[in-house]
């Protein structure tokens, strides 16, 4: 008996979410000491946004895998898998390795895989595009936020070792 596609896809997305949740800790002195842009949402907004995004990602992934065959299905599966690995890796690089610069490079790669997923989805099904678009849009926002944190903390030695100067656009979370 083979495991249904929706179970495998949902399990992969849930594992990604669990890794991200486990790696993310906005309460650390390191994170609180980083300069952040004034437009950064408060920490509780992130799980509130990510929960439905992960549900949409699982639904879109399942739909894509069910509606594609052969090489198209294999390409989508590889891209989807790479996307999930990059998604899970971002909080590990940012929060655990305390490397916003490395996390920025990684999230740019995530954005590229999002574009590839959207391209695959556009060939197969408009509903998949609709399900993936909020995820892609949020990761673009996350990329801009990550870039702003890197810039605001430049010249602080390893980014964000808690050294602060007063700044008009500084926000503590």
UniProtKB/TrEMBL annotation:
Instruction: Please report a single Pfam family linked to this protein.
Output: TspO_MBR
Annotated Gene Ontology cellular component terms: membrane
Q: Does the keyword Transmembrane helix apply?
A: yes
Give compartment(s). Answer: Membrane
Q: Which CDD domains does the UniProt record give?
A: TSPO_MBR
One Gene Ontology biological process? tetrapyrrole metabolic process
The way it spans or sits in the membrane comes to: Multi-pass membrane protein
Which Gene3D superfamilies does the annotation name?
TspO/MBR protein (1.20.1260.100)
Where does the sequence pass through the membrane?
46-65, 135-155
Q: Which domain of life is it from?
A: Bacteria
Show the InterPro entries listed in the entry: TspO/MBR-related_sf, TspO_MBR
Instruction: Provide this UniProt record's keywords sorted from A to Z.
Output: Membrane, Transmembrane, Transmembrane helix
Question: In which family does this protein belong, per the annotation?
Answer: Belongs to the TspO/BZRP family.
The protein's name in its UniProt record: TspO and MBR related proteins
Q: Which organism is it from?
A: Micromonospora eburnea
């Amino acid at each position: 008996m083979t495991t249904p596609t929706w179970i495998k896809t949902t399990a992969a997305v849930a594992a990604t979410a669990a890794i991200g949740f486990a790696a993310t800790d906005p309460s650390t002195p390191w994170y609180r000491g980083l300069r952040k842009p004034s437009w950064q949402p408060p920490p509780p907004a992130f799980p509130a946004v990510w929960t439905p995004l992960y549900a949409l990602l699982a639904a879109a992934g399942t739909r894509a895998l069910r509606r594609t065959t052969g090489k198209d299905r294999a390409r989508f599966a590889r891209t989807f898998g790479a996307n999930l690995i990059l998604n899970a890796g971002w909080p590990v690089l940012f929060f655990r390795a305390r490397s916003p610069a490395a996390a920025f490079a990684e999230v740019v790669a995530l954005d590229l895989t999002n574009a590839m997923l959207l391209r695959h989805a556009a060939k197969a099904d408009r509903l998949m595009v609709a399900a993936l678009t909020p995820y892609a849009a949020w990761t673009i926002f996350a990329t801009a936020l990550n870039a702003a944190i890197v810039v605001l903390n430049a010249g602080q030695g390893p980014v964000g070792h808690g050294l602060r100067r007063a700044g008009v656009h500084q926000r503590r979370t």
